[in-house]
Amino acid sequence: MDPKPPDIDVEALIEDIAVRTARRIDSLGMEQPALVGIRTGGVWLAARLRERLAIDTPLGELNIAFYRDDFSRIGMHPTVEPSQLPFGVDDRHLLLVDDILYTGRTIRAAMNEIFDYGRPRTVSLIVLVDRSGRELPIDANIYGMRLSLAPDEHVKLLGPDPLRLEFCAHRS
Amino acid sequence: MSVPDIQLDSHGRLRHFLTIEHLPQNLLIEILDNAERFTVVGDRAVKKVPLLRGKTVVNLFFEPSTRTRTTFELAAKRLSADVMNLNIEASATSKGESLSDTLRTLEAMATDMFIVRHQDSGAPEFIARQVGPEVGVINAGDGRHAHPTQAMLDVFTIRRHKPDFERLTVAIVGDVLHSRVARSEIHALRTLGVPDIRVIGPRTLLPTDIEALGVQVFHNLARGLEGVDVVIMLRLQQERMQSALLPSGHEYFHTYGLTPAHLKHAARDAIVMHPGPINRGVEIDSAVADGPQSVILQQVTHGIAVRMAVMSMVLGSYVQTT
Description:
The structure holds 2 protein chains of 2 kinds.
Chain A: H1 10-27, E1 34-38, H2 41-53, E2 60-62, H3 71-74, E3 93-101, H4 105-115, E4 122-131, E5 142-147, E6 153-158, E7 164-169
Parallel strand pairs in A: 1-2, 1-3, 3-4, 4-5
Antiparallel strand pairs in A: 6-7
Chain B: H1 3-7, H2 25-41, E1 56-61, H3 67-78, E2 82-87, H4 99-108, E3 113-118, H5 123-130, E4 136-142, H6 148-161, E5 169-173, H7 180-191, E6 196-200, E7 216-218, H8 221-225, E8 230-233, H9 238-242, H10 249-256, H11 260-263, E9 271-273, H12 286-289, H13 296-317
Parallel strand pairs in B: 1-2, 1-3, 3-4, 5-6, 5-8, 6-7, 8-9
């Protein structure tokens, strides 16, 4: 059986992701890669990885509210900080970071937004948790752990200090 | 049913944007915060987001306008909506079609939103009551009544320079009587908690009951500008001078035109605004309009982001409730 999120050592997962990300940067020969976090959890994680991997490029932050595919169903999302990619995207290797990979729709929206800033050389997806329930053909290049959850079970990253995973079930 | 009732739905969301009056402070702040997010879009390589993809927006202008119409058009296009511009003076009404029939025709083309400018006060509200339940209406200026998106882009510009509304002194100078911009600005500034709002102008161009809106009245420009943080100049329409409300443009400029000398009475870091188009040498000196304290062109840029915010909030309120 999978370990339940309260027992998961998030710090160990981040360390593991960091090691594998460093290896990926190396093997793909990425020069001056940039970390791009998806708000909010992905930004926490990306900031940690940037520090751990000593990446010089400033942290990119994406708020994909304007790119969601559910505007006509649920309208505008509550106001949060806007996206900021404080570096040239053209020809750069991007490391896109999110906390939980679930349906894949957030990643689709994030990639659409990234391409409105320019044409990156490569985009790699790094997530803390890869959970079941994908609705689009999207996969993570690096993930901390995989969880098999029912549709009414949810896992959430809380933070930023300390980072921890919360597990809940909504029965409807 | 009054205007505020049709502007908001039962969840307090913006269904139409017709006037600032009676809108709650948190909604105005939500518009400003959303506009702040949209300004970032204008700085990117691709200045477009897919939020309103597939929506149809009609600019319904019964009165000529360049700046307002083009910024609404650009705002809609940056949200990926399809936009049609209709200059009604030049089309249907001249063929004898009634306003209701024109609206029905446009609705039959599955229009999601009307942006309305009209010389008669209340026309956008009339249209908001005519259209179907899923169609949003935004007032782009009606008669002497209101010009709410202009007021919002003005307070957005103020907030960018002077974020603390509760400590501000704002002066609105000129033809307040005929100005829908001034009226909407006063409501917006009041709602956002600006404690000291002044109107400055000749008696013939100030409404007699203006103090009821909670403003101080000055007829002397230098005295009115004393220590103010924001100076909003209003456009003096040429026809006012022909209608005996004013002696001459030259004399008006001498008494109420904003010159560098007059501006010295305001706070040293005061900003100067104008909704445009400006009459150089009538209400404002070129040295001020083009000077370091002028934020007039920023107002135009901010107008796009503010209109994107309002359009997406209005169309975002028409969501499936199931």
